[in-house]
Amino acid sequence: MAVMAEHTSQMSVDEFETIASAAPETVTLEFIDGRIGVKKVTDGDHDTIVSWLTKRCIQARPDLDVYHGRGLRVAAYRQGRAKPDAVLAPEAHFAAHGEWADPEGSLMVVEVTSYDSDTDRRDRCEKPMAYGQCGIPLYLLIDRDACTVTVHSGPDRQIGGYRNARTAKFGEKVLLPEPMGIELDTEVLKNYVR
């Protein structure tokens, strides 16, 4: 039986929120798995992908709102803080919430990979674990490095992550299962990679 090393947090959530509130607009700070992470400002292709997805989702589901950079309390016992590239939730769902909202009621979170050294750990490992543990039904990862779209579904609140992950190459059609119920034609995404 393997013994897991005890993981200690870099700081408390309150300390992180104080630091994050004073961060310059050139970066976004997140606190996942007890560690502070820095996301640099996105590039135009990244923003275009998020805009493209927003339009498709709102056209298919006008009953939803798409929140960009919405702070969510994530991970075990809500001791983490993440700012996904997009969160889809029922209309006005986050009204009257502060900077860091409970993710309950979110239908899907979206991350578009950035060209930085933390992308693998952050977007492909830590975030699916945190979002699944929160019970967010879907996690959509648009991976510009691999030119793929991965739909994570079946969140596992006990151990984190998702029970299902379906990956498609840019150019293929991708089904976002319920609660979204949308099909995306990802051909256009080929235009927004290096």
TrEMBL record:
Protein origin, superkingdom: Bacteria
UniProt-listed Gene3D superfamilies: tt1808, chain A
MF GO annotations: endonuclease activity
SUPFAM superfamilies: Restriction endonuclease-like (SSF52980)
Entry keywords, A to Z: Endonuclease, Hydrolase, Nuclease
Keyword hit for Chloroplast: no
Annotated transmembrane regions: none
Residue intervals of the Putative restriction endonuclease domain: 14-186
Entries under Pfam families matching the protein: Uma2
Protein name, entry field: Uma2 family endonuclease
